[in-house]
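Good morning C.,

I know you're traveling, so I'll keep this short. The sequence:
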Amino acid sequence: MAKDIIVVGGGIVGVCSALLLQRAGHKVRLIDVKKPGRETSYGNAGIFAEASIVVLNSPGLLKILPKLLFNRTMKLRVNHLFVLKRLPWFLKFLSYCREAHVMHAAGALRQLLTLSLAIHKDLITAAGVGHLLRQTGWLKLFRTEAGFAEFRKELSVIKSFGARFTIYDREQIRQLEPGLEPIYCRAVLMDDTCTVSSPADLTDAYVELFQAAGGVVEQTKVTGLSQQDGGWCVECGARKFFADDVVLAAGAWSAEMASWLGYQIPMAWERGYHMHLQPGDGPALTRPIHDIEAGFVMSPMDQGMRVTSGVEITDRDAPPNYRQINYSVEMARQAYDMKHQLDQTPWMGRRPTLIDSLPMIGAAPRHDGLWFNFGHQHLGLSLAPGSAQLLLALIENTPPPAAAVAFSPTRFRL
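The tokens, ready to paste straight into the viewer:
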């Protein structure tokens, strides 16, 4: 039976949720304070990372924890006051650093990521934006043999779940990407990974599909959620919108909104930055590259060469700290010739991360008609359509396309 559904949150997860629900016959309204796709979803590296299945909280994290806590690497920086304030969260996060959890999470993510990639391709065709899609893979690069040897542990997990990759040596890297400086001794090309040249344009195209079929977008701030007369009321200041169901897909702001209804969501935030630079006059990069040891991604975009930083663990709304992105740009210039910076100031986004590094997709435990779809950490773009398809199956009470239990809100005491 068709429902009136409100989706709160206009990032790529919310947009895909709204679009797939509408394509299934529901009447859908999408609400966000900004234009859809202009918050965290705007600034990613544009990668459909179907093989990014090894979560951050793994046994390897415990080995390098002292180094991370003393901020001796730019791949991950922590605000010590924030760690102390949220110490129970961090201890819980570290409690998942077990081999069994790594394999459990990898299997669940692999299912949802491969499903998402297939749906992305279908939606890109339907939206007529095939020019955004690149099917050239994603290149992970290593400056030292020791760095590559450490990554082999992750490769073994990736291989066990069927992801395809090809390993290259120094000379083969030069042939594959002649524009790179010869500073890398090894590379791993994730063969099936696809990328887009503008995540914002992709989101816009999905929103246009949604609106062309009758979907409604409201650009306004949500200030309240309440159950009324067997349905839901979403308050936006003086305005009120009513629906049968509500999907909460507001990314880093989801935990705050859920708390209005008494839920304690175990969420923290992995902040990240990017800067665009003008490419130099040498051979163009044909795919995104990930310098594993320096901790940055460099991705060719319509706006220029996008350099993204490592992770910053701090309060969601703490003032920006540009130290990591400045370092990332410096390291990226070692790898590839680039001219001037194109952005006046670096962009910053906030990735929502739960204590087990898996998203929360499913029915809210204590409120009929309320659905959660958030906590996708670095994989919002990669997981968005699959998460939406899973959510649709749960709402319609049909067989889910992936292992729903791994993402269920009931895995936590909320």
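Safe travels,
E.
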